[in-house]
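re: the backbone from monday

yeah here it is again, tokenized this time
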């Protein structure tokens, strides 16, 4: 009986190699922290991790949906989207727009920028990598041009208590935005036809079209939703930092893609769930926080994220190869 269970566990780990790596990384990180610097495990450190994780979690959720739907889906523009949406929002308030409309402007701007990506990908049949790389530079460049590279003041006072507020050790933006967003998407993917369409598109787009799934329309909606989540992250950045910064989304494109893939989303779509993405986001931020606590220069953080991304891609390819071999048997 034990050998059967052990064989089943081994088979699962082979088929889900990426999630196995995620669990192993969490275990290693916890052991290293407990042995080397247990003082890191405090309420203030938890608050810091969750605060920094808020932006990454929102854009990673959108990134996961884009990758999950297949078609070589990817959105490298999420960082530029966050920056530009924040700048458009704050400059609109500076121009006289009622401050109450700031979150609406951020969300609307993010969704429109995401929709532009979706239209270029779905209707003009341009590769997502090329489209979103181009719009990343476009959005980031516009954010810099509109501000001259300087932070913009004028965030309404009512937004700051929410952006910097805590419920115990948990930041309010994380509690009121990130947790509900992940729960809603998890329910949609698991229990609705909308979710089944997404998995079907990622698993076999040609078959999805044959059975009547509106693939192009769904892809535009998903890119728009990815942009909407980036717009939500831009409002969080305004409320937390107290100013609009043209570099608010720097490196989010690389980190969100790493979180999505490390969380178990297959690179070619059709497989994965958002619970793994949630755990991967927390791991990445906890890893970066621990590196700072250990006195490791922050310039190494991007390198570590890039190394993780390569490792995840290799693991995903190996896992797919193992599944094919087992299927052939």
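seq for it, each position gets an aa:
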């Amino acid at each position: 009986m034990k050998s059967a269970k052990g064989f089943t566990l081994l088979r699962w780990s082979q088929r889900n190699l990426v999630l196995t790596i995620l669990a192993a990384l969490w275990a290693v990180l916890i052991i290293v922290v407990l042995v080397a610097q247990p003082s890191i495990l405090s309420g203030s450190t938890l608050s810091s991790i969750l605060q920094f994780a808020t932006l990454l979690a929102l854009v990673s959720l959108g990134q996961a949906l884009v990758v999950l739907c297949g078609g070589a889906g990817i959105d490298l523009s999420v960082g530029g989207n966050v920056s530009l949406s924040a700048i458009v929002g704050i400059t609109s308030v500076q121009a006289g727009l009622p401050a109450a409309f700031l979150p609406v402007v951020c969300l609307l701007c993010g969704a429109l920028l995401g929709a532009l990506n979706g239209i270029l990908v779905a209707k003009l049949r341009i590769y997502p990598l090329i489209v979103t790389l181009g719009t990343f530079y476009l959005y980031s460049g516009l954010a810099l041009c509109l501000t001259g590279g300087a932070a913009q003041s004028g965030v309404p006072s009512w937004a700051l208590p929410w952006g910097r507020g805590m419920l115990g050790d948990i930041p309010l933006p994380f509690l009121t935005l990130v947790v509900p967003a992940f729960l809603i998407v998890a329910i949609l993917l698991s229990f609705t036809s909308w979710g089944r369409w997404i998995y079907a598109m990622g698993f076999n787009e040609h078959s999805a079209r044959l059975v009547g799934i509106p693939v192009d329309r769904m892809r535009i909606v998903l890119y728009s939703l990815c942009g909407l989540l980036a717009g939500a992250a831009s409002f969080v950045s305004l409320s937390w930092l107290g100013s609009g910064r043209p570099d608010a989304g720097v490196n989010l494109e690389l980190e969100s893609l790493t979180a999505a893939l490390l969380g178990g989303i297959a690179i070619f779509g059709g497989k994965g769930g958002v619970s793994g993405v949630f755990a991967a986001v927390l791991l990445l931020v906890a890893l970066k926080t621990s590196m700072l606590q250990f006195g490791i220069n922050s310039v190494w953080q991007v390198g570590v994220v890039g190394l993780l991304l390569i490792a995840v891609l290799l693991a995903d390819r190996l896992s797919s190869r193992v599944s094919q071999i087992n299927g052939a048997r």
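The mean pLDDT is 88. The chain has 14 helices and two strands.
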